[in-house]
Design goal:
The complex is a heterodimer. Chain A is 77% helix and 0% strand. Chain A is an all-alpha fold. In chain A, helix 1 packs antiparallel against helix 5 and helix 4 packs antiparallel against helix 5. Chain B is mainly alpha-helical. Chain B is built from 21 helices and no strands. The N and C termini of chain B lie far apart (48 Å). Classes of the chains: A mainly alpha, B mainly alpha. The interface between A and B is large, with 57 and 57 residues.
């Protein structure tokens, strides 16, 4: 269980980083409003910084949201299952529905970001021309954190199942 | 191999089965998109997904989602609802149905503070339901009012639903906000009329509070009521006004609004580290939950449309007899029935993209259609078995309230919402007038 505890620490830590990103996001959006409307001088970096902060927030928050069981589901049928049935059902969901897309998107994301770094690709949204590698890396980072948290959930489900059998 | 359009039907069918069975929506979408994508498009699906995710990340308008959620959560912590409700309680108390009036008006004000409903419904249940039960209000009415009023949060701007609808349908979020204002107020008005008429016909439904219980109404009383409500109302008017007048984009307004909410919290002496932290974490889970659905639905739709699923639905619906109004009714009914089983995010990102080209082919105004859909989606909060508002109310209300009471209580309000949809169909100006005069159509 040390391993599970370690993963959960990672999810909590990245979750807290992601949660606090709302403050810099707020500051940059307000700064841009002031610069544009009051001084008529929008910054070159504001626009891209805003969406990168926002993207980092929700992608890095995926694992923490899984830890908190806040990804939505309909639990009417689920609640009809026995305790054991629920554990087996959850195990299948984590193994198939969560883990498969998370692993594949981590892998695809690594290629996506690596290509951007290799060709020194630049963002073309504004005249700032920030490299597109860092924001693109957010996708594999987010999904990798999800893979980790998913493994923790799987281990916990198996352990709970084993304990139920003994008692 | 199964023909493509048949595969599209299977894909949608599997999604429904998985979601109703209890699989998390966001990941059911991703898994099906990968499965059918690999089978019919090959490994192409992966770089395509990456570009689709990146497109969502780069969207300027969607930045407003976390900021509006944050603004609403901070305002909730400043006890806006408590203040407004207290003031209205004292004003409306001695009238029959007065507490229900106060609840609806508070919910309407609160709806204009937040873009989501969880906070509104929970807060209002804790505040208003015990107060109404104590005065022997009908249990169904007491809980139905909170469900219906609380759900206004998703419709009355700023609304997360409208922020999400805009980029998906290529509509301006500011125009959507302007267009949704009067339909939202219409609903609120219909609820008030229903309570008024209902408590007049059936005095036991919502008895008046005895005079002895009420405070003396002198100038101090009115000043205090004003002091409790005015700062919040001003903030809302400033945020919404600047968007609807076209002075600021919804994203800019969401940032400034969130800052003002923090300042208001200082003003009411409610700003602490733990308040901000709680708000930041709530914002994170709401945002991550919504955006994983958005990116999942994005690739699900690409694959579904690639397989020709959209064309299939389009040709089926356009082949229906009785003209375009009948087709509109079928689309609205589909969303309404879907709302019994699927959450609004799912409906918005799965069914609406299929319906949009149909609505265009039938020459319906896109803005008008958007608001009809959103009023309709709002009903999904009240229609069991999968009804968020009912869950939240049940979770927060005293144990003497049975789920059955809430089910009976929401029926009149669902009927009123259907009335509102019909009224908006007959009088499209309710939707279209405000965006036209302020933002030029």
């Amino acid at each position: 269980m040390r391993f599970v505890a370690m993963i959960e620490w990672i999810s909590r830590f990245t979750g807290s980083v992601a949660a606090w990103l709302i403050i810099p996001l707020l500051v940059v959006v307000v700064y841009e409003v002031v610069a544009r409307h009051l001084f008529n001088a929008p910054s070159t970096w504001g626009y891209d910084t805003c969406w990168m902060l926002f993207a980092a927030q929700f992608l890095m928050g995926g694992a923490y949201t899984l830890l908190q069981k806040s990804h939505i589901r309909i639990d009417i049928v689920y609640n009809l299952l026995s305790e054991r049935g629920k554990l087996i059902f959850d195990l299948i969901i984590y193994l198939v529905v969560f883990l498969v897309p998370a692993v594949l998107f981590t892998w695809a994301g690594i290629h996506f970001a690596a290509d951007a770094f290799a060709s020194d690709e630049r963002l073309s949204t504004t005249n700032w021309f920030f490299p597109s590698g860092p924001p693109k890396s957010l996708i594999p980072i987010g999904f990798f954190l999800l893979v980790l948290q998913c493994i923790a959930e799987i281990i916990r489900s198996i352990k709970d199942l084993a304990e139920r059998r003994e008692t | 191999m199964i023909p493509e359009q048949a595969a599209a039907v299977i894909m949608m069918g599997l999604l429904l089965v998985m979601v109703i069975g209890g699989v998390h929506l966001a990941f059911a979408l991703m898994l099906l998109a990968i499965g059918f994508g690999v089978a019919y498009m090959g490994p192409m699906i992966f770089p395509m997904s990456m570009l689709s995710f990146f497109g969502t990340m780069e969207s300027e308008e969607l930045i407003a989602v976390p900021l509006f959620v944050f603004m609403g959560t901070i305002l909730e912590k400043t006890e806006v609802a408590e203040n407004v409700y207290q003031a209205l309680f004292e004003v409306f108390g001695p009238v029959r149905g007065g507490l229900a009036f106060a609840t609806i008006v508070t919910c309407t004000v609160f709806a204009a503070c937040t873009g989501v409903i969880a906070a509104t419904v929970t807060t209002m249940t804790l505040l208003a339901v015990p107060a109404m039960l104590k005065r022997r209000y009908n249990k169904g009415l007491a809980t139905g009012v909170v469900c219906a009023g609380g759900s206004l949060g998703i419709l009355i701007p700023p609304s997360v639903m409208l922020v999400m609808y805009g980029p998906m349908a290529n509509l301006s979020v500011a125009k959507l906000f302007a267009a949704a204002l009067f339909p939202g107020l219409l609903l609120s008005g219909l609820y008030l009329i229903y309570i008024g008429v209902g408590s007049w016909v059936m005095p036991t439904l919502a008895p008046a509070i005895s005079k002895a219980e009420m405070p003396v109404r002198d100038s101090k009383f009115w000043l205090r009521a004003l002091w409790q409500m005015l700062p919040t109302v001003l903030l809302i008017v400033a945020v919404l006004g600047s968007i609807i007048e076209g002075i600021a984009s919804p994203t800019e307004a969401s940032g400034v609004g969130a800052l003002c909410a923090l300042i208001l919290a200082v003003f009411y002496r409610k700003l602490t580290y733990s308040t901000v932290k709680a708000a930041a974490y709530t914002t994170l889970t709401v945002t991550a939950m919504v955006f994983f659905i958005i990116i999942g639905a994005g690739i699900f739709n690409s694959v579904f449309l690639f397989l020709g699923g959209g064309e299939l639905v389009k040709s089926m619906l356009l082949g229906l007899p009785f003209g375009r109004w009948f087709i509109l009714a079928v689309m609205m009914l589909t969303i309404f029935i879907g709302g019994f089983f699927i959450s609004w995010q799912g409906l918005l990102y799965i069914i609406v993209p299929i319906f949009l080209p149909i609505s265009t082919a039938l020459h319906f105004d896109p803005l008008w259609f958007a608001i009809l859909v959103c009023v309709n989606l709002q009903m999904s909060f009240l229609t069991p078995p999968f009804a968020y508002a009912i869950f939240f109310v049940k979770g927060a209300s005293p144990p003497e309230i049975a789920t059955k009471d809430i089910y009976w209580g929401v029926i009149p309000f669902v009927l009123l919402q259907i009335v509102a949809v019909v009224v908006c169909v007959i009088f499209p100006e309710i939707i279209l007038w405000l965006p036209r005069v302020t933002l030029g159509g």
